[in-house]
Write a structure and sequence with these properties.
Number of strands: 15
Helix content: under 10%
Oligomer: single chain
Structural class: mainly beta
Order of helices and strands: EEHEEEEEEEEEEEEE
Distance between the termini: 15 Å
Length: 176
């Protein structure tokens, strides 16, 4: 698992050869997915209320989505407020090597990204923090598990530096 900068505009169609998902285009419960995608990305919920926002430093676009077929660059995403809140995702394996690109960030918080395989083994953890403003990243997760097994991903607000709504946020994920 590695952390990288996010380009100004991310093309989910180009990056999500197998599957992709984008959160927050039309509110906190809004998810747009790759039309005809494999369905490997599973939103398992998380902890806390999901709000949407439209001022992400980077934008996302696609031309193969459902229920929204295409969009020009959109700076939208979802967030959860306060310590212990966050998101839970899973990606289903096929026995072949897979790469997940997770686009996520935080605002006045420390976020903890935990990744583990359902086949066992240790949990891999990365942390990211900004006490005063926002920060975003592209987390690259490479894995291989047997068909039907999963990689479990959680992105949680470990420390709230704001006091009321320091948060982690989620924009998109791709699988190739």
């Amino acid at each position: 698992m590695t952390r990288h900068d996010v380009p100004d505009v991310v093309d989910l169609t180009a990056g999500g050869g197998r599957d992709w998902a984008h959160w927050g285009l039309r509110g906190g419960d809004s998810v747009v997915r790759k039309q005809g995608g494999t369905g490997e990305i599973i939103d398992e919920g998380g902890w806390g209320y999901r709000g949407s926002y439209h001022n992400n430093p980077e934008s996302f676009r696609w031309v193969d989505g459902s229920p929204v077929a295409s969009t020009g660059p959109t700076p939208t995403g979802v967030y959860t407020c306060g310590r212990g809140t966050g998101f839970a995702l899973a990606v289903v394996g096929s026995g072949e090597p897979r790469t997940v690109q997770l686009y996520a960030g935080l605002w006045m918080a420390r976020g903890r990204l935990d990744v583990r395989l359902t086949t066992g083994g240790p949990t891999t953890t990365l942390r990211m923090e900004d006490r005063h403003t926002n920060r975003t990243a592209r987390f690259e997760i490479r894995f291989r598990v047997p068909r039907g097994e999963k990689v479990k991903i959680s992105w949680i607000t470990e420390v709230d530096h704001h006091g009321q709504c320091g948060n982690v946020d989620l924009q998109a994920a791709t699988v190739s």
